[in-house]
Predict the 3D structure of the following.
Amino acid sequence: MEARGVHVPDLICLSHLRWDWVFQRPQHLMVRFARERRVFFVEEPWDTEGPPRLDVRVTTEGVHVVVPHVPARGDATASAELVRALVDELVSEYAIRAPVLWYYTPMALAWARHIPASAVVYDCMDELSAFAGAAEGLRRREVELIARADIVTTGGASLYEAKRHRHGNVHLFPSSVDVPHFAQARRAQADPPDQATIARPRLGYFGVIDERMDLDLLAGLAAMRPHWQVVLVGPTAKIDEATLPRGANIHYLGRKPYDVLPAYLAGWDVALLPFARNEATRYISPTKTPEYLAAGRPVVSTSIRDVVRPYGERGVVRIADAVEDFVAAVEACLAAPDASRDTADGLLRGMSWDATWSRMRGLVAEACAAATPAAA
């Protein structure tokens, strides 16, 4: 693609997250990159009973979503070779030349490290090695990826502190927010049908429900205040659903499209960040924190480091860990729901995904200008 006479290289994004799973950091950035260049979002492979194949579809935003399908053989090396061959087919079919390689998972090196690239970016949004079911060799692959990368970016301050001494070009890009989108929740509107019958007050959470959630906290919260309704919006992953807390006042509404999240938020009295404090949450920087605040909701969170700093320190998120303290924090929010809204609105200024993408785009342009395409 050409822009004002300058070649803008295609971008191949290699992600451990599925495009259609939860709309978050990769999707926000890739739809913006797709405004100026071809973007190929390559997911990790799906198992198939048939021969290897590559499914490619184009989203309404212009992103090519690429899904490799390979036979389930239980052999990681053989699987990686098949995916590499499929990616080579993609590069050939679409005449991709010296793309930007944008990694979210170091495991993708196995099928993309040989591609000559204009620049290599590692956007580290999570410490994947700390998650349940982490792939064998992930830490070793990350060492290799950091060595190969031209740019390393991190999705939160804690991750930045952990990575900044490992590369000479590391940049902090904390979670951003589409303020106008979530500000829709501030308007009076009809509840979505599956939420309309739930009584008030409602305490809500949206996002993936996995090993990062403090299930005991949720159970204790619901038990201590049975007239409070706990609404959980999002898919369940990597945990046994039988372990989820149950009760008449706990409501699992499942995964919802990004477009309708403000409608759910509009019907909540308090938004929750009920994360456990464990290895999987040590470095997380929840994107939903500024999203909740943009929606005008009061927020209660456990003491996740990247929530405490800056949101807890600025007084726009109440921090509590023990069940009794969490209940007291929710009660304070219910009593004064607008107490910190003006401060939160000020904190959100300048945190847009457009601004984050623009800065990242500038770093990529600098790296492309400085580098001669080489095997990545």
